[in-house]
Specification:
Length: 103
């Protein structure tokens, strides 16, 4: 693992646990994480925070973005599984129809 990736993972882990009363990132649903991420971005864009506060907020934003990506990947997998099951059922129906004509 590269030093940059290790640092990012460490920062994400720190951002996952919140001492300031916020819900830990790993407990957030997609919509909650997305909405909080939008707030983080808006706050960072406004500026006015000191360096430490900006970095902490940026780390939280990275963790929120990762959480959103994980939720979307899970949803994508579920959709693909359903679509694949549907294709298999269609194929089985086609095979059964072919068997009817073999008699």
């Amino acid at each position: 693992m590269s030093p940059q990736r290790a640092a990012k993972n460490s920062a994400s882990q720190k951002a996952d646990t919140s001492d300031d009363g916020r819900t830990p990132v790993d407990e957030l649903g997609y919509e909650q994480a997305r909405d909080e991420l939008a707030e983080v971005v808006a706050t960072l864009e406004r500026g006015g925070l000191d360096l430490d506060a900006s970095l902490a907020l940026w780390e939280r934003g990275e963790a929120l973005a990762d959480r959103c990506e994980a939720h979307l990947a899970g949803a994508r997998e579920r959709i693909e599984a359903v679509l694949n099951d549907g294709e298999e059922l269609d194929h089985e129906d086609d095979t059964e129809d072919d068997d009817e004509f073999d008699d």
